[in-house]
Amino acid sequence: MTSLCRAALWYSDGIEITNTKMHGIKALRECSHVHISNCDIISPEFGWSVNGIKMSDCTAQSEYFMMRSENLDFRNVEFKGKYSFQYIENAEFDNCRFDTKDAFWHGKNITVKNSVIKGEYFAWYSENITLINCTVIGTQPFCYCKGLKLVNCRMEGCDLAFEKSFAEAEIVTRVDSIKNPYNGTIKVADVGEIIRDDPKSDGEVIVSGGCRQKAV
Fold it and tell me: For the chain, how long is the longest CA-to-CA vector?
């Protein structure tokens, strides 16, 4: 696929792509049962409305990457771009690196393991997303979430986190600020500021050493 290729592989089933440069526009729209490995992807609007995609050992640059896709399995994928993985459902990511803003918005039933996610406004409006052994970098992550779970995670440069979210979180680093968690328990190594200016903010924050704060 060259940069002039448009609308490649739409409405297809049972696709396997290996050792390929995919540099076209709008590839893999409304496909199913796709396996991609050892590929270099530079493709705006890649992978929209795909059902059942496995991607491994790939690099990708895109916008609105994999939007509205379901049943994703990503392993060792490096991605750079804006607005990735929005409205996805039933997905698992392992050993990935993402440099992206507004990622995972409105996503449902997602597990991310051993990965690094850098970018603003991560996982807003998501439902049932779990992060295990991950690093999250950037402002205002995890706002307006339901069923959010973090296990042994790191956060860097994260302020105004967890706003209006229902979360169970274990964070082994400092968080710059936590704002109005609605429910659940956030355990954190250190926190710069806990902001409570919403009467519905009832989530508990526990700082290492036993200090606890709940809404009063």
Answer: 60
**CA pair distance 125, 89, nearest whole angstrom:** 13
Residue 150's CB: how many other CB atoms inside 10 A? 27
**Gap between the Cα atoms of 40 and 30, Å rounded:** 20
HEC sequence for 109-156? EEEEECCEEECCCCCCCCEEEEEECCEEECCCCCCCCECEEEEEEEEE
pLDDT digits over 134-192, tens only?
Answer: 999 999 999 999 999 999 999 999 999 999 999 999 999 999 999 999 999 999 999 99
CA 170 to CA 190: how far, in whole Å?
A: 11
CA separation for the pair 115, 93 (Å, rounded): 8
Rounded to two decimals, the pTM is 0.93
Pairing of strands 108-113, 127-132: parallel
